[in-house]
Amino acid sequence: MSPGIPFGDRLTEAVARRESQIVLGLDPDPARVWPAAREAADALAVDLDLTTTGLRGRATSPASPGAVAGAAIGAWRAGTVASAAVAAHCRALIDAAGPACVAVKPQLACFERLGPSGQTALAEVVAHAREAGLLVLLDGKRGDVPVTAAAYAQSLAGETPSPWGALPGFAADAFTANPLLGRDALAPLVATGAGVFVLVRTSNPGAADVLDLLTSGGAPLWEHLAGLVDALGEPGPASGLNAVGAVAGATVPRHLARMRELMPATPFLLPGVGAQGGDVAALGPAFAPGRAGGLVSASRSIAEASTQAGGAPADAARREAERLREVAWGLG
């Protein structure tokens, strides 16, 4: 991250340089990694079995200290192997599809469920994305009371001070946030200088249960959130694009024109293309402020492209990412 340059300007420069508005979603499932990643993880599992057999063999009864240690070793082994598979899969996906993208969007939950080794895998994937010249947008939808929001901010985009020295966070270029705890809960996240994409109208069907509810003024709740996002945003001096963005689901494109009225200089993160049914060609209003005004996020449609198109996973992912890039670029 380059904290001295406002996020709107950094995003605009990156989109122009890479000629892409595609965000590669990384939602890895250990059971669905590409074959090469699975093979590498299987080899690691064999190596770990050889080094832990003696330790695991000390168990004499289910309740013995040896049995407890054996269970812990088994859990450590599973987490280590699964995390290695996930990291290898994501690196290969970045290598294949990354050239057609401007950013990656790791879904934090997919790494956190792997336990402590999942954090290591995430750090490896973030470093690999940076080496590939991609922005890093962490998708955790964080939002909590201000003191907790400050801790989230340090984890996602900053450093945590301690008596033993500063502890590095992930230094993300941007991340997602939940606005339902209000402005004071968003303030520590916005203060990081990273891009903050606030949930306004999400892509899942259940979004209507809450975000479409009418407020006392007669407008849906998401319009109120859009006003909040617009007020929080500071435009970059070079691009005029705000540092605070909006998550606007691509599955409900009919809302985009109204969102643009309410948030004229806000970058939109547009999830839901592909597997969720969103169509890039319907997203035109998102790009009214310029090509960097809309970021099209695609995950499974790229990672699992070979299940539809056939061929090697990497080749299919590369083709699908490039197809999406061409369509989105044409709208800008």
Please characterize this protein's 3D structure.
The protein has 332 residues and is an alpha/beta fold. The chain is 48% helix and 14% strand. It has helices at residues 7-18, 35-56, 65-97, 108-112, 116-131, 146-157, 183-190, 207-210, 221-232, 256-262, 300-303, 305-309, 313-331, and strands at 22-26, 103-106, 135-142, 159-160, 167-168, 174-177, 195-201, 244-248, 268-270, 294-298. The strands form two sheets. Strands 1-2-3-6-7-8-9-10 form an eight-stranded parallel β-barrel, surrounded by seven helices. A two-stranded antiparallel sheet has the order 4-5. The two termini are 25 Å apart. Residues 54-68 have low confidence and may be disordered.
Sequence-ordered SSE layout with sheet pairings:
Blueprint: H1 7-18, E1 22-26, H2 35-56, H3 65-97, E2 103-106, H4 108-112, H5 116-131, E3 135-142, H6 146-157, E4 159-160, E5 167-168, E6 174-177, H7 183-190, E7 195-201, H8 207-210, H9 221-232, E8 244-248, H10 256-262, E9 268-270, E10 294-298, H11 300-303, H12 305-309, H13 313-331
Parallel strand pairs: 1-2, 1-10, 2-3, 3-6, 6-7, 7-8, 8-9, 9-10
Antiparallel strand pairs: 4-5
